[in-house]
Amino acid sequence: MFCEASLAATVDGVRLWRAPDHTRLVFDLSGPVNHKIFPLDNPPRLVMDIAHSSINTSTNGLDLSTTPVTALRTGVKDKTDLRIVLDLKTAVRPRSFALSKNQQYGDRLVVDLYDIGQETVKTVKDAAGESGNRDIIIAIDAGHGGEDPGALGPKGIREKQVVLAISKELQKLLDSTPGFRARLVRTGDYYIPLRKRTEIARNHRADMFISIHADAFTKSSANGASVFALSRRGATSETARYLASRENQADLIGGAGSVSLDDKDHMLASVLLDLSMTATLSSSLEVGAEVLRSIGGVARLHKKHVEQAGFVVLKSPDIPSILVETGFISNPKEARQLSDRSYQQKMARAIFNGVNRYFEKAPPAGTLLAARKTMGGGGVHVIARGDTLSDIAVRYNVSVEDLLRHNGLNSTRIRVGQRLKIPAS
Ligand SMILES: [Zn+2]
């Protein structure tokens, strides 16, 4: 079965990530290996044999507490091979694949243990909305995660942590606003392949998809926030092209294995793309423009318009999708800001205001916002740093006096985080 006897590799590290539906083990290798994996019953175990290899690291530090694995044992098989045995609480559906080395990591072996009987059936009724006044569902996609740290900033700041923090702030704002409901695509520190992210948004019946990032650029002087939509042709700038190709490589780092597009995806790709993409793209550009405008009050903008490039994660044919680069983590000043809790909140508020403004103007049919619009009611604006009442009045096409009256205010003093009810214009 195993050949190439000269191939001798060592396992130099083991990492573990727990996702809602599976556990991922990553073995760092000194070189490529052949491996096989098979389950055993009574008690349930998973056996992995790695040819011509040995282990050169301790596995004692692994936190197995939230996983189906109770212990990880290693031994020698046939004098030359490494055998790893995972003792399991319950049976799992295993899948394993090799990842060849890249700029960030060396050769790796990835073992995914899928929970059995955890299939997601619960999503449909979430968004159904019996009354016809359903919430607008916003899928928030914190980029990277788990094996893929994203961009690395000074002092060990990692993009995956920063963007999850901003995503959670945004979720709080949306969930506390009537008419909206947020769904986090990634809820913790684990990797999700790019295609899977759009699928999760679709399972949640999202009305919109926002992917949140804080990337690095080759020059540490590069700075500013940007908003991107998909491009069906080329990219609108060199930076956009560069960032899209970087983002699209995430699956190589985070490990998507041999996930290929299924038949439905192919069908979508060929037929629906052309039919509905034009409409979806124009919505993406509109909501992107609103978000960019709000972010302009908080951060320097890298470009004054929504840029476009071929981001894989934005390729939902039917869900308006944008990618927000909240800043460059490779820029020391922005890295400092992005890791600051109150700046994260400001950024989340700005994104919220842009999204809110867009949906106030163009609420999908059957939503609470649509019903309110027909009845002549207005929306909500959360005060961000730099906002003034007169700006807000202009933005929503109402007068300052109306704003004051509608909110029962008797001075134009406002504070960051305050919620203003917007009268119908
Ligand atoms: Zn990123």
Describe this structure in words.
With 425 residues, the protein is an alpha/beta fold. The protein is built from eleven helices and 17 strands. The strands form four sheets. Strands 11-10-12-15-13-14 form a six-stranded mixed β-sheet, sandwiched between helices. α2 packs across α8 and α6 (263-295) crosses α8. The radius of gyration is 24 Å and the shape is elongated. The termini are far apart. Mean pLDDT is 86; it is low at 120-130 and 259-264. It binds zinc ion (ZN). Zinc ion binds next to loops.
Task: Give the arrangement of secondary structure elements.
Blueprint: E1 9-18, E2 22-29, E3 35-40, E4 45-50, E5 53-55, E6 69-77, E7 81-88, E8 92-99, E9 108-115, H1 124-128, E10 136-142, H2 159-175, E11 180-184, H3 194-203, E12 208-213, E13 226-230, H4 238-248, H5 250-254, H6 263-295, E14 307-309, E15 321-325, H7 332-338, H8 341-361, H9 368-374, E16 380-382, H10 389-396, H11 400-406, E17 419-421
Parallel strand pairs: 1-5, 10-11, 10-12, 12-15, 13-14
Antiparallel strand pairs: 1-2, 2-9, 3-4, 4-7, 6-7, 8-9, 13-15, 16-17
Helix pairs in contact: 2-8, 6-8
This protein binds zinc ion.
